[in-house]
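Question (not urgent): is this output format expected?
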Amino acid sequence: MFYTYILYSDRKDKYYIGHTHNLVLRLERHNSGRSRFTKAGIPWIIVYYEEYETKSEAMRREYELKKQKNRKYIINLIDKKR
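Got this back:
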């Protein structure tokens, strides 16, 4: 199983979009400072994710979400899932 996910940092008031095959491990890596881009926003929390059968599907969805470049779109997506 593969995932497209959205993280949120209250500290930076920013969202981060990515994909992975292991959500728990990926979140641990973001919060341990291993990812240069997300290091300044620690702690991150998972606020949204979608499951996919293949890595290419998850990557495609990540690209679609990043292409939106619209915070309101991301917030609406998260709110719909709740």
